[in-house]
Specification:
homodimer, DNA Polymerase III, Chain A, domain 2, Proliferating Cell Nuclear Antigen, nine-stranded antiparallel beta sheet, 6 helices, Beta sliding clamp (chains A, B), cytoplasm (chains A, B), transferase (chains A, B)
């Protein structure tokens, strides 16, 4: 194997596939990055066996020569060293050559690295995905869906299924739902599908976080292929494969209240900042991180918290409208701030159905996203 | 106590004095920030009893009203909460008022915090410094002196005196020296003094790091007062007091070689980057982080490292000149990179007196700064 490659593209590809490489793997070959030089370009692969990422650099793009293949072949190089080296090479062009016995030379300017590589035949093959039905969604919308739901997955391993995001495809719509059983985030978007097939899968939150980081913020489509135990995301030069979580996701539709006894319409930023301030004194004590919301008439909402040893904070926020019953309710400031940050739009609508019942937050005039929070009993 | 204050100035002062506050103190009152409202302005104090920082905000500056004093007085507020609160207040102006029993109200816009304060009479008084001799040095030069030496202090507590920077004042000059016994950094600068008095003190490296962070990069003078066990730094509105390390600093002048057998003149950045790259493969193995330098004729310097399990790297750097004997020497890449980053100037001169002897690095044509490194025996 021998090729010349543009350093900037090399750095980007290595950085992307590194997201799948774990230093804690029990399979030694997976501490490496696989490099394959073919006639049409070079492919880099990283994997921790749960997530695999492939990045392809074509020989040519938009008239620019990115790679000059001098000899076909493949190698696996220690990811930790290889990724550090490419970042610090002195020149814009890099030559990578495999000598005998997997010994690999990386040359750039007057700098020459000799790395002891690993046998590429030992690197596991990515599973073959049968591409019967390809779903398509714009990349930026997929990124938004991930951002608006994935923060709500459980971080505890007590119920592993809740560490994933439940993704359902039905009637041309993609539903993403995440809950840690104290709060829930749901977002719906249109998805392009060629068949009537429905899907109901659970993708690990960790995989979606990594996927979100390597996807560019464009409106180019991402292709999605779902199989029984894997999901594949594909863009122009990237391929992201994740295993799915096994088991059935709880039916969350029953959790979402239909009725509303108090409805508050309020500016998102002002509400968020008031809760942020109130949470400053709510870190300790009997109810850590819990703030109280009270309707006090004239469209005013009072946000407060009280930790006897430290002090208390009270703040009034003018709402756009308060409809329905008076209300006193306590909830986690962190959950509320997470939910408000995930929402788009200047104004939100919060629907309460009593101090002990879950409440629901929507952007005003947007039903495609929903955040649900369970209150905390404090008195 | 009651006053109105500009939020931006309040945030800056609190942030500065917070650098002296430690959450691990055994003296409960020192977890707080002391606030004193006097006729001419407000003073904030933080201390961990080793370092004390005072920041003063005058009533008026350049025609702007910064503080409106409504009632004189003082209070101590929990630093952790107070510093978080001021950063998140909604309006440009903040009102701070002490009610009965140290209860303190912080108001800004519609936000109102009630903090349980501590008795200001329990806060230790800063030691009185007799100001017989005031030394003066421009702030930016003091910051450079700190930056160019403090990184070389020892981080081990086996010889506590080496965790400090040795500062000497003699004949209108300030000498700063730091060593961890494997490398040494020295910088000299002119200092303005009104007497013939000489000083030889050791300031904790930690104190100088904090001082460097709170000093602005101006050429306004810093006033320095040295006593038997304290040093005071003072700028317009800041006062920084540190205890000194006890014990005598080793005589480092003997360490610095007078002779030079090989002299290399080289571009600082090219040399630094080559060593950085060579160090990438030198992290593990028998000599962690050690790189080798070899003169190979034609003014070329070869930088290399070799870790059998991982691989090797070789790079040639063109020097401006190599004078004297041929040389093969190994040294810590980290120490060399620290030294090169601390130097000013495009070109450096390295003087070696043999593979087993300490070597010295200067900027070309600048004797006011010196970096010394002990080589590593590898063969």
């Amino acid at each position: 194997m021998k090729f010349l490659i543009q350093r900037d593209r090399l750095i980007q590809s290595v950085q992307d596939v590194m997201r799948a490489v774990s230093s804690r793997t029990t399979i030694p070959i997976l501490t490496g990055i696989k490099i394959v030089a073919a006639n049409d370009g070079v492919t880099f692969t990283g994997s921790d066996s749960d997530v695999s990422i492939e990045s392809f650099i074509p020989k040519e793009e938009d008239g620019d020569e990115l790679v000059e293949i001098k000899e076909l072949g493949s190698i696996v190089l220690q990811a930790k060293f290889f990724s550090e080296i490419v970042k610090k090479l002195p020149m814009d062009t890099v030559e990578i050559e495999v000598l005998n016995q997997f010994q690999t030379v990386i040359r750039s300017g007057k700098s020459e690295f000799n790395l002891i590589g690993l046998d590429p035949d030992e690197y596991p093959h990515l599973p073959q995905i049968s591409e019967d039905n390809i779903l398509k969604i714009p990349t930026d919308i997929l990124k938004t869906l991930i951002r608006q739901t994935v923060f709500a997955v459980s971080t505890l391993e007590t119920r592993p299924i809740l560490t994933g995001v439940n993704c359902k495809v039905e009637n041309g719509k993609l539903y993403c739902i995440a809950t840690d059983s104290h709060r829930l985030a749901m977002r719906t978007a249109a998805i392009d599908t060629q068949s009537e097939e429905t899907y109901n899968i659970v993708i690990p939150g960790k995989s979606l976080n990594e996927l979100n980081k390597i996807l560019d913020d464009t409106n180019e489509p991402v292709e999605i292929v779902i199989t029984e135990n894997q999901v594949l995301f594909r863009t122009k030069h990237l391929l992201f494969l994740s295993r799915l979580l096994e088991g059935s996701y709880p039916d969350t539709s029953r959790l979402i209240p239909n009725e509303s006894k108090t409805e508050i319409t309020i500016n998102t930023k002002e509400f968020l900042q008031a809760i942020d301030r109130a949470s400053l004194l709510a870190r300790e004590g009997r109810n850590p991180n819990v703030v109280k919301l009270t309707t006090i008439g004239s469209g005013l909402v009072e946000i407060s918290s009280n930790t006897p040893e430290v002090g208390k904070v009270v703040e009034q926020v003018q709402s756009q409208a308060i409809d329905g019953e008076e209300l006193k309710i306590s909830f986690s400031a962190k959950y509320m701030m997470d939910a408000l940050k995930a929402l788009e739009g200047l104004e939100i609508r919060v629907n309460f159905s009593g101090a002990m019942r879950p409440f629901v937050i929507h952007p005003v005039n947007d039903e495609s996203i929903l955040q649900l929070i369970l209150p905390v009993r404090t008195y």
